[in-house]
Amino acid sequence: AAERDIFVSKDSGKNWVRSSQGLSAINIRSLTQNYIDREIIFASAENGLFRSTDGGGSWVKIFSLDSADNEDFEDEESESSASPARVSIDPFNPEIIYLSAKEGIFKSENGGDSWKRLPKTGLPGTQVKNLVFPSYNKGFIFAATENGVFRFSEEEDMWKDLYAGLPSKKAVFVALSSRQDALWLATKNGVFKSKGDIYEVKEISALDEARTVLENFSNEPSFREIQEAAIEYAEVHPEKIAKWRRGAKTKALLPRLSFGIDQDKGDYYHSGEWIGEDEDTGWDITCTWNLGELIWNSSQTLIDVRSKLMVQLRDDILDEVTRLYFERRRLQIELHRNPPENVTEFIEKELRLQELTADIDAMTGGYLSREVAKRKAGYPQ
C-alpha cells in the first residue's frame, strides 16, 4: 500500500503491478486479508474502507461516514474527518469484520456489506488503536485506545476499562499472551502485562485506583518520616525542652563548691634576736545547697522563653516541609498519570520535581534522597 495506490506482486516481490481500479483512497493506513478466502482484501484509508474480492484487481468502497453512503451515521463527522485505524477479522467467522475509527467501533456480519456500531457504553470517545479477539473465550474483544485498554463482553453488551495501575492511559497496542490469559499493552511509558483474570473484570472504585497509584511511591518515606527527619536535623525536637527542664530541677541537688586558702607571714625573734620568717597557711572547702530550687528555679523562666521560640520554629519547619512534600507528591502523580507530551513542559515539570526534592533534602540533611536510594537498593528501612 502506498499513499493513494496499491501494488500487487505475484512473484515474491520481484515485479509489481499497480492495482487501483475503483480505488479512491486517501492516505491508505493498512491492508487486511481474509484468512480463508485470500482473494478478499480490505484497504483502510483516511476517507473510508475499500474491499477487493479479486486479489486486488479492483476495489469498491464499502464504508464511509459520509451521510450519503451511511444514513445511520448522518449525525457524525464528515467523510474527510474519518480515519479508520485498523480492520480486524473475527478469528472464528471471517464474515464478521470490525473497523475501529475515531467515531467508534463498527461491526459487519456479512463481510462488509452493511455495518452497525457497537455500544459505546463504557468506552470514551477516543481513537482506537487496535482490537484483539481471544480464541478460547468467544464473545470478548479487547481494545487499545488513547484512554487505556478496554474489554467488551457480548453478554454484558458494554465496555469496561482495564487501565487500573497503569502509569499512562495512552495505549499504543494491545496483544494477548500465548495462553490468552493475560494482556500485553504497549504505552508511551513502556510495556506492561496484566494481572489477574482479564475475563472477570471487577469494578474498581476511585479509592482502589488511588491506592494503586500511590503504591508506585511505596519506596519513598512517608510525610511523617520526613517531618521527623526535619525536626531532628534542625534540633527542635520537643525532647530537647524536656531535657532542659529535667536538668534545671536536678541542678539543686548539686552543691555549690567554694575553696579558700589563707596565708600569714611574719618575722620570728628569740631573745630579741631575729631568727627568720614565720609562715602560716590554711585552706577550707565549703559546700552549699539551695534546696528551694527543687521547687522553683530561675532558669525555668529562660527555658520557657526558649521553649516558645522553639515551638514557633518547629511549627514553621513542619509547615514548610509538609507543603513541599505534598506539592512534590502531587507533581509526581501528575507526571505518572498524565505526562505532558510537550517536551518543554515536561522538562519544566521534571526540573520542578528535582527542585522540590532538593528543598526537602536541604531541610532534612539529605534524608529524602538518601532514603529513596536505600529502599530502591533493597536495604531495610
Strand-helix topology:
Layout: E1 7-8, E2 17-18, E3 28-33, E4 41-45, E5 48-52, E6 60-63, E7 86-89, E8 97-101, E9 104-108, E10 116-117, E11 128-132, E12 140-145, E13 148-153, E14 158-161, E15 171-176, E16 183-187, E17 190-193, H1 206-214, H2 223-234, H3 238-250, E18 256-270, E19 273-288, H4 299-337, H5 343-364, H6 367-376
Antiparallel strand pairs: 1-2, 3-4, 4-5, 5-6, 7-8, 8-9, 9-10, 11-12, 12-13, 13-14, 15-16, 16-17, 18-19
What structural class do helix, strand and pairing data support? alpha+beta
β content, as a range?
25-35%
How can the largest sheet be summarized?
A: 4 strands, antiparallel
Shape: rod-shaped
Task: Output the helix-strand order.
Answer: EEEEEEEEEEEEEEEEEHHHEEHHH
Strand order of the largest sheet: 3-4-5-6
What is the tally of beta strands?
Answer: 19
Give the end-to-end Cα distance, rounded to a whole number of Å: 58 Å
Tally of alpha and pi helices:
6
Rg calc: 41 Å
What level of helicity do the residues show?
Answer: 25-40%
The pLDDT mean sits at: 79
Low-confidence stretches: 67-82
